[in-house]
Design a protein that fits this description.
Helix content is about 45%, strand content about 20%. The protein is built from twelve helices and eight strands. The strands form two sheets. Strands 5-4-3-8-7-6 form a six-stranded antiparallel beta sheet.
Length: about 300
């Protein structure tokens, strides 16, 4: 009798599981408490009450459709889920925070300042600030470029887990110029160097011949949300000198958007002389690589 009761209870439990895919997806999305929630497969299965094999199969589909992201720690909400109810996914807020600092970068250096976000492996430009030089660059607000070919994009990619980068690209990458990184393994090597430079990314003629850039990521507690870069004609040694400015601005925008990261340092700067937060010796160590090249 007890065995029949157990079997009956198990059968009833199975019948109570949501039958439709929509209901099961909803249960899985509801398992995440917010944009920064990170769960293992076991945790998702436990919170939803769905069988582990079922959860794994549905999560695989949701990762492919960008409802969920999969990284070394497990799963988190993806681009589509985060954008629901968020209008432009926070892009206006990022642009508003960065705009005055982009103008300051342009005024101090005479170079073109960019703000971009990562969208399915591409840089989507939210802002572009520059004088006559800006008209000579092919980038435009609302335009796109392969993230792996720009300093701004590589700075964002380096802040992602390697498996997230793998999910964005195939083994071979289309070239923009003869200097563009053309395969995934070389890209991972470059991203490793960027991580060792604490997020500073350099690009020399990879997106447009004769143009060099330096970029840094805008971060949130959950990961990168944008990238900031300065671009201009390639000149030996010039990017190394201005790189601390880009890193400081990216850090300040990160802190304005996410105060929990710390207090912005802009109030401690003078308006006329850009401060260097790193010594020349530290900067030399940051930009150095074994080959002596950026890529």
């Amino acid at each position: 009798m007890l065995e029949m009761t157990a079997e009956t209870t198990e059968a009833a439990s199975k019948r109570e599981l949501p039958a439709s895919m929509v209901e099961r997806m909803t249960l899985i999305l509801d398992a995440f408490e917010g944009a920064g929630s990170r769960l293992t497969l076991e945790e998702v299965a436990c919170r939803t009450g769905l069988p582990r094999s079922t959860v794994h199969r549905i999560l695989d589909q949701m990762v492919r459709l960008e409802w969920v992201d999969h990284a070394s720690f497990g799963y988190c909400l993806g681009r589509r889920a985060k954008s629901l109810g968020a209008g432009d996914n926070g892009q206006s807020r990022i642009r508003e925070a960065a705009a005055p600092l982009l103008h300051e970068l342009n005024m101090h250096t005479g170079m073109v300042a960019h703000l971009a976000v990562l969208d399915r492996g591409e840089c989507l430009y939210l802002d572009k600030v520059g004088g006559q030089l800006a008209a000579t660059l092919t980038s435009r607000v609302g335009g796109r470029a392969p993230a792996y070919a720009t300093a701004c994009g590589k700075a964002i990619l380096a802040a992602l887990a390697p498996e997230q980068v793998d999910a964005l690209y195939g083994r071979h990458l289309p070239r923009r110029t003869d200097r563009t990184i053309a395969d995934l393994s070389t890209l991972h090597q470059e991203l490793g160097r960027i991580r060792r430079r604490h997020g500073l990314a350099f690009e020399d003629g990879e997106a447009m011949g004769g143009i060099a850039c330096v970029g840094a990521p805008v971060r949130s507690p959950e990961g990168p949300v944008a990238g900031i870069s300065l671009c201009g004609p390639a000149r030996p040694g010039h990017l190394e000198r201005i790189a601390p400015l880009v890193a400081d601005v990216a850090r300040d925008v990160s802190r304005m958007l996410h105060p929990e990261l710390g207090t912005p340092r802009r109030a401690r700067r003078t308006a006329d002389v850009p401060a260097r937060s790193w010594s020349p010796h530290t900067m030399e160590r940051l930009v150095a690589t074994q080959s002596g090249q950026w890529i």
